[in-house]
Each structure stands twice: as C-alpha cells, then as structure tokens.
Amino acid sequence: MSSDKVDTIRSSSMGVVGRAESHVRGQHLTLDSSARPQPDAFTNSEAFLAGISSCGVTLIEGHARETGIPIRGLDVTIEGVRAASDSTRFASIAMTFEIRGVSQEQAESLVETYRGR
Q: How many CB atoms are located within 10 Å of the residue 41 CB?
C-alpha cells in the first residue's frame, strides 16, 4: 500500500455561470471565475494566491516551532499581476514576509526555508 498523500477536492457548478463550489473533508468553498466582472466570492486567482501565501505562513510557523525560533507573529502578503492583454496568466507574483520577534538574520533564514521547499 502506498503512503502517498492524495488530496481529493470535488468542484461543482452552482447554477450561476462563473461560480463553483468546492468540497473537501466536509468543508466547502465558493469560488468565482476571475473573469466575472463583479465577483462576490474569492476568485480562482485569489484562492490560488491565498494557497501560496497561507502555505508560507504555516510552513514558516511550523519550522520556527521545530527549530526553537520564537516568532511572535507572521504576515505574508502576496501580489499577483495579470496583464490586461492576457488575464489568464500571472505576469509576476511577489511575496512580502513580515516576521515579528526575530532578528533579520533569523527572518531571512526562515524565508529561505520556505523558498527551498
């Protein structure tokens, strides 16, 4: 038997063009198409970026705890730029890490751990 982790998410239409609901482990998330002119929910692009930035938060917090680095707080801001000529792709993505309670050297080491995984 394989020990691989498999994440299965089911996304379904909701009767509104450009909106879907995703289900996993009894949880649900409504997502709007990034192409919708007036999105009401997180868009697919925003959810993608949120997944990346929240991974930064949880990975760095976990690594800090495992290595005894006493962080007091952590914020990760992510910005994705999509060109008006092709809004289906990100032209660039930038992340900013604000880690409280550590030295600059410790913060850089923690961010480097995130980048390396």
A: 17
